[in-house]
Amino acid sequence: MNWLREPDGEPLPGYRLIEPIGTGGFGEVWKCVAPGGIHKAIKFVYGNLNALDGDDARAVQELKALERVKQVRHPFVVSIEQIQDVGGELVIVMELADRNLHECLVEYQGAGRPGIPRDILLGFLDDAAVGLDHLIEKHNLQHLDVKPRNLFMVADRVKVADFGLVKQLERSSSSGLMGGVTPIYAAPETFQNKISKHSDQYSLAIVYVELLTGKRPFAGKNIRQLALQHMSEPPDLTMLPEVDQPVVARALAKNPDERWPSCTAFIRALGGPRDATGSSGGTEAGSGVREPGAWAKVGRTVHDVELTPPAPARGGAVVMSGAPRPQSTPHEHPEIDEDHLLGVTATQKDLGVLRPTILIGVGSFGRRALQEIRCRLTDRVGDVVQVPCFRFLYVDCDPDAVTKAVSAPPDVALGTDEVFPVPLQPVTQYRRRQLDQILDWLPREKLYAIPRSLRAGGARSLGRLAFCDNYLRFVTRLRREFQIATHPESLAQSSDQTGLTVRGSVPQVYVFASASGGSGGMLVDLGYAVRRVLARVTPVDAPVTAFVYAAAPDDPNSTDAELANLYATITELNHFSDPEVSFTAQYGGHEGPKVESRGLPFTSTYLMPMSERSAGSFRDCLSHLAGYVSHDMTTPLGPVLEQLRTRPVGFDRSPFRSFGTYGVWFPRGLLLRAAAQKICIRLLKEWKVDADPADPTPVQHVVGHAVNDPRLKPDAVRAQIEQEAVRGPDGGPGDQIERWLSGLEAQLGGSVRRPDAAAWSRAVWEQARDLIGTRPMGEQDSSVRRSRTSKMLEEAVKRLAEMWGNEFAEVVRPLEEYPGRRLGAISVALKKLAAASSEWANAADARAQQLAVKARQAKSDVQSAHDVCQAGSGTFSFFGGRSGRSMRHFLDQVRVFAHVRLQEDLADAVAKFYRALRARIEDRARELAYCRTRMELLVDVMESPLANLPPSSDTPVALSEEALQQTLRPTNTLNVVLPAGETHIERSAKKIVASVKSEDVLRLEVALQKLVLEPRGGLTALCQMNADMGRTLVAPMVEQTTAFLSDLLPVTDVTEVEVSTSRARKVDMSARIKDYHERSAPACGSEAGAQTFVLVPETESGSAFAAMVKKSVPAATTISVNGAATDLMFCREHGNLMPAEVAAILSACQPAYYEALATTQTSPHSRFDVTEWLPLSE
Question: Protein kinase domain: from which residue to which, for each copy (predicted)?
Answer without folding.
Answer: 15-271
